[in-house]
Each structure stands twice: as structure tokens, then as C-alpha cells.
Specification:
The structure holds two protein chains of two kinds. By secondary structure, chain A is an alpha+beta fold. In chain A, 23% of the residues lie in helices and 26% in strands. Chain A folds into two domains: 1-30, no CATH class; 31-161, no CATH class. Chain A is globular and about 40 Å long. The N and C termini of chain A lie far apart (36 Å). By secondary structure, chain B is mostly beta strands. Chain B has one domain (23-250): Jelly Rolls (Sandwich), CATH 2.60.120. Chain B is built from one helix and 16 strands. In chain B, a hairpin with a 2-residue loop joins strand 9 and strand 10 (176-181). Classes of the chains: A alpha+beta, B mainly beta. Chains A and B meet through helix 2 and strand 4 of A and strand 2, strand 4, strand 5, strand 6 and strand 7 of B. Strand 4 of chain A pairs antiparallel with strand 7 (137-144) of chain B.
């Protein structure tokens, strides 16, 4: 309930309403796009802070865990959270140095693409994925590469993020 | 001249035989933190199925399960972009086209990667490195376990397992299934290995804890303990080990004092 209240207050603030007294009695609607963009931008910042390199472009899409697993079947059973949880899937393309865990004697994967999944219900990142791929039209609208793994277009409408 | 050359070769062979650690219980191999290409990966781990140069020997096959108790006594959460872990790695057979050494599944306790918007915690996590056939691409996925609830408690033993069940690799916390995925790592086969202990992607972060009660299942037979080499990055970790089943590790210096 506290989370619902907070979400409503954010909505109210964005609408220049000065009071949060009149709370909705129905479950809160999806967070506003601005809040989503700010959250996605924060996830992107964390990814870039952890992995030194040069970002060329980034975007995110909003879906549910169920929608994500449907689009990426190999994630089935992997994710912490309920199927109905709203998530932001943040994707960035560039050239990065991987810092993820590896067994001794094994090289880290080459990384040009990083995908991070933020569960909006818990406020926690529940997955990070690193791999190499071409510039893709889900992050770069002018690109034509296909097929696209972790395709944001299969999850929702990709929204561009600032990589600076 | 030919005699001298033969003697030299023989001498070198004897010297190598003397200085090369034998693959017996508790044989230690001192290693440096791997700083290529940019970030160090430091280890204090028990192993089985690895040569002294950390390459699968081929002696371990059809490993369908690895398990152990994992404990974190200190893991810095100060630097969210620098992981430190206490965990178990199970090396899985390689897909054709995989070029990074070995594919794997891992589970344990980590600091850093999952802070999101809610702060920084010690988290239960699992991960996998693998090759998707036909894509020519290698992947690394890391996940919070499905039972993670804002993290681990310091000084507590947690029982983790990686098991191959009904066609997929699955992650267990105790008896609870806490992660799985399909179409990624191959089924048990050849050139497998097991590692367990500590990893840090920085020499700045504190990281102390233990792994114990280690074991694995190979060809349907349960084996207790990891009786291969102990690898230790000497500039990062001290360790003690009382048997083939445990390893207690500690970073000797934590510059920010966070873990003391």
C-alpha cells in the first residue's frame, strides 16, 4: 500500500497537484512514462558504471515478466518476481569491458550489448545479460540488422535513452 | 654437444616434475589476479577436474550435480560496480563454436550487480555462461534467485546446488528450486569440472567467508569433497582448509575498512 501511495504522489506531483490526500481506491495505474524513463536511465547508469567502455545507443521497453519470458523462452523459470510484475527491459549497445563473474581459467564474454531487467514492483534489478551483437533496430531505429536477440520491439515500444 | 643437450632436456624435465604440484588433496597453486583486459579477477577456490593451469583435465565427466554450503562473513557492498562473490561453479560441456574456455553454471552470494533502485545488498544469485548454437554468440546471464529477499545474512551458511534435472540445469537453495532455464548449457558430458570459493573483481573490496560440505555427482555416484587443486590469488586472499570439504578465505586488507 505504501508503494501504491508513493506512486500516486509521483503522479500527482507531475500533474502539479499539491495534495496527495485523495488517494485512489483502485489499484494504482502503471507508473507514468517519465517515472519509467527516469528509472530506466538509472539502470543504464548502473550498467555503464560497472562496465567501462563506450555506449553508442540505448533504449528500453516496458512489459511484464510473463511477456518477457514469452518473447525470450530461455528465460523461463529464471526470473525472480511474479509473472504479472511490470518490468523495464533496458538495452545498451557499444563496446564494453565485461566485469562479470567467471570460473577460473575462463574468459569473460565479449560485450557489445547489455540488457538489464528492473522489476518495478520491487525496485530491484533481477537480471543482467551480456553478449555481442550488431547494432539493432530496437535500439537504433535506422538499423536493419536481423534477427535481433532480446528484441525490445517484441516487448513494447522502445524508448530511446541518453547515453551521455 | 648432443650429450650436453640431452642432459639439459633431462634436467629441465626433472625440474618441472619437482616444481609442478601434484593433483592431490590440498595441493595449492598460487596465481595472480587476472588483470586482463582491465579488471582483476581474484580467486581463492577449491577445485576438482582442473589441471594446475586451470584447464579441465578431461578426467571428470557426466557431472550432473554440485553442492555445498556457502557463507559470507564479509562482502563489501561499497562499490556497486565491483563484484565480490562466494559461490560454486559447475563447468558444463562446450557447444561447438564456444571459444572462451568453458561454459558454466554458478550459484552463490554476490555484492554489487542487483542494487537497482532500492539500495545495495548481498544477494543470492545464479548465472550461466553459454553459447547459443547457430547464433555464433556467447552469452552471460546473471539472476537474482527467485527466493532472494533483500539478501544474505553475514555469517550464515546457505546450501546451494546446481543440478541437471529433466533436461535443464536447475538451481536449488536447500531443497527449493530458485532458478532454471532451457536451451542454454549442454547436458552433462565430457570435460567438466567443479570450483567453489571466492571471487573478487577488484582488489579494493573486502571478501571473506567459507565454502564447506562440498560434493558432486558423477556418473550417478556421489563424491564428497573437491580433492583437486586449491587456487589462490596471493595478493588478494589468505585461506585455511581443514579437509577436502572446506575452504575458509579472507582478504587480508580492505582499504575502506567497511568489512571490519
Amino acid at each position: 500500500m505504501k508503494r501504491i501511495h508513493s506512486a500516486f504522489c509521483i503522479v500527482a506531483t507531475l500533474a502539479a497537484v499539491t495534495s496527495c490526500a485523495a488517494e485512489p481506491t483502485e489499484p494504482a495505474a502503471a507508473p507514468p512514462a517519465k517515472a519509467d524513463s527516469e528509472a530506466a536511465q538509472g539502470v543504464l547508469s548502473s550498467l555503464l558504471a560497472r562496465h567501462p567502455g563506450q555506449a553508442e545507443g540505448a533504449a528500453y521497453a516496458k512489459t511484464t515478466i510473463a511477456g518477457y519470458v514469452s518473447a525470450i523462452p530461455r528465460e523461463k523459470g529464471a526470473l525472480a518476481g511474479a509473472e504479472g510484475d511490470q518490468i523495464l527491459v533496458v538495452k545498451v549497445h557499444g563496446v564494453f569491458t565485461a566485469t562479470h563473474s567467471v570460473p577460473l581459467g575462463v574468459k569473460a564474454v565479449p560485450v557489445t550489448d547489455m540488457v538489464s531487467v528492473l522489476d518495478l514492483t520491487t525496485g530491484r534489478v533481477i537480471e543482467n545479460t551480456f553478449y555481442s551483437g550488431p547494432q539493432t533496430p530496437d535500439v537504433f531505429p535506422e538499423a536493419t540488422a536481423s534477427p535481433v536477440d532480446y528484441d525490445l520491439r517484441e516487448l513494447g515500444t522502445p524508448i530511446q535513452l541518453n547515453t551521455q | 654437444m648432443r650429450v650436453l643437450k640431452s642432459l639439459s632436456v633431462a634436467g629441465i624435465a626433472v625440474l618441472i616434475a619437482v616444481i609442478t604440484p601434484m593433483a592431490s588433496a590440498s595441493a595449492e597453486v598460487s596465481i595472480s589476479c587476472d588483470s586482463t583486459p582491465a579488471y582483476p579477477h581474484c580467486y581463492a577456490i577449491r577445485t576438482v577436474g582442473l589441471s594446475s593451469s586451470a584447464v579441465p583435465t578431461g578426467a571428470l565427466s557426466s557431472v550432473s550435480s554440485a553442492t555445498g554450503w556457502v557463507r559470507a562473513d564479509c562482502q563489501d557492498t561499497t562499490y556497486a560496480n565491483e563484484i565480490s562473490t562466494s559461490e560454486i561453479w559447475l563447468i558444463t560441456p562446450n557447444h561447438s563454436g564456444f571459444s572462451l574456455g568453458s561454459e558454466w553454471v554458478e550459484v552463490g552470494i554476490t555484492s554489487g550487480p542487483f542494487s537497482g533502485t532500492s539500495g545495495t545488498f548481498l544477494d543470492f544469485y545464479w548465472a550461466r555462461g553459454y553459447h547459443v548454437a547457430g547464433s555464433q554468440t556467447d552469452y552471460y546471464n546473471e539472476y537474482l534467485t527467485t527466493d532472494d529477499s533483500f539478501g544474505a545474512t553475514l555469517g550464515t551458511n546457505y546450501i546451494f546446488s546446481v543440478k541437471y534435472v529433466s533436461g535443464s540445469w536447475r538451481i536449488y537453495h536447500g531443497t527449493n528450486l530458485v532458478g532454471s532455464g532451457t536451451g542454454t548449457n549442454l547436458a552433462p558430458g565430457s570435460n567438466q569440472a567443479v570450483q567453489s570459493g571466492a571471487e573478487s573483481a577488484s582488489t579494493n573490496t573486502g571478501n571473506s567467508g567459507a565454502v564447506s560440505h562440498l560434493g558432486y555427482v558423477t556418473n550417478g555416484t556421489t563424491v564428497t569433497g573437491l580433492s583437486g587443486y586449491i587456487f589462490r590469488s596471493v595478493q588478494a586472499y589468505t585461506y585455511s582448509s581443514g579437509s577436502t570439504q572446506d575452504l575458509t578465505f579472507s582478504t587480508p586488507v580492505t582499504p575502506d575498512g567497511y568489512c571490519h
